[in-house]
Amino acid sequence: MRYLSAGESHGPELTAIIEGMPANFTVNLDEINFQLSRRQKGHGRGGRMKIEKDQALVTSGIRFNRTTGAPICLKVINRDWVNWEDKMAHFGEPLENIELVSRPRPGHADLSGGIKYQQRDLRNILERASARETTIRVAVGGLARQILEQFGIKIYSHVLQIGSVKEENPVRPFEAKDTAEWANKVEESPVRSYNSNTEKRMMDEIDKIKAEGDSVGGIIEIIITGAPVGLGSYVHWEHKLDSKLATAVMSVQAIKAVEFGLGFKVGERPGSQVHDAIYHSEEAGFYRNTNHAGGIEGGMTNGEPIIIRAAMKPIPTLYKPLESVDIETKQAFEASIERSDACAVPAAAVVVENAVAWELANCFLDKFSGDSVEEIKQQVAAYQDLIDNY
Ligand SMILES: Cc1cc2nc3c(=O)[nH]c(=O)nc-3n(C[C@H](O)[C@H](O)[C@H](O)COP(=O)(O)O)c2cc1C
């Protein structure tokens, strides 16, 4: 599968065209909209989340709840467009009194993008660089994860750190007494924390930093269960699953680091405390008692849960102004703003989940390819047989 997206933050809509999705997959629009609503939540969000409740529209490729094999067009309408029609008009001349954006915000694409694309109105940069673009990626991921779920692959996320507040004893969904209870609790938490104590401290941290006019980042963890052994491949660099998933994670705005399993800790420990010993039993087949690798060895899934962590930088737009220089006057100014998130770590977790869902669904369909869900099911069953008899 492949997809292209288009659309600006204050344009009429965000659009994606997905090509290559096999026929006869059952798709639930509510599930896509559920993902969109998850992206809009979280303690520390700013004004826009209150203006817009995102809803996906499908205009092709799905008929009576099922994919037809034709390209799927997904859209999310920007309700705020009515206030931007003049300023963001696609044709005609700009209004006399239109305010050009000439003040690049530190930490954003504004200045480098202005130089690169030779734009003197930095709105032409920020409109597309904005994290509003993640809306359509979440919609696409919301579709892709439905394929995965039909084959028992589930994607979870939680927040492990906000600023100086760290979850010291993280519980993962498969370690909890009840996975569904884990998922519900995290979903209801304004900071996506399973631990009520940490949740409270994280919210206090956000409030404190926001009151200081500052912003705060954090660390999220993505957990994928049910992936069969052998997605991705060692045979050539571009087939390695960890590299593909890392690209998906790093492509999300403000994500600055990614790690799998033990991650950076592999550099501190001896090999005997890094690698996962292999065992076998009649009932379980091959298995491991530890998962330091985070479910990926040699660029392939090894059957254990995939564990990915990512670090998000603090939101760059601060109420407390940062120094910058006007591109026209070359004069220094202090970048102040009207509206911004103080913390978007919980929302970023949802975005990363869905970006990863797209990549993993693609790898799944690379391994079990076919034009229809019927063909894919046959291949999955045949492969399961091969695994069981290995
Ligand atoms: C879900 C989400 C929401 C974001 N909200 C804001 C925001 O309100 N204000 C802001 O300045 N940056 C926000 N960002 C971060 C910027 O989009 C990002 O830092 C910027 O585009 C520069 O890209 P880079 O950080 O990847 O270099 C958000 C990012 C994500 C993932």
Automatic annotation (TrEMBL):
Q: Which gene encodes it?
A: aroC
Native source species:
Desulfuribacillus alkaliarsenatis
Q: Which SUPFAM superfamilies does this one have?
A: Chorismate synthase, AroC
- Which taxonomic lineage does the organism of this UniProt entry have? Bacteria, Bacillati, Bacillota, Desulfuribacillia, Desulfuribacillales
- Which residues make up the binding site for FMN? R128, A129, S130, Q253, A254, G298, K313, P314, I315, P316, T317, R339
Q: In which pathway does it act?
A: Metabolic intermediate biosynthesis; chorismate biosynthesis; chorismate from D-erythrose 4-phosphate and phosphoenolpyruvate: step 7/7
Question: What is the protein name given in its UniProt record?
Answer: Chorismate synthase
How is the co-factor bound, per the entry?
Answer: Reduced FMN (FMNH(2)).
| Any one biological process term the GO annotation gives | aromatic amino acid family biosynthetic process
GO terms (molecular function) for this protein are:
chorismate synthase activity; FMN binding
> Which reaction(s) are listed as its catalytic activity?
5-O-(1-carboxyvinyl)-3-phosphoshikimate = chorismate + phosphate
GO CC annotation terms, alphabetical: cytosol
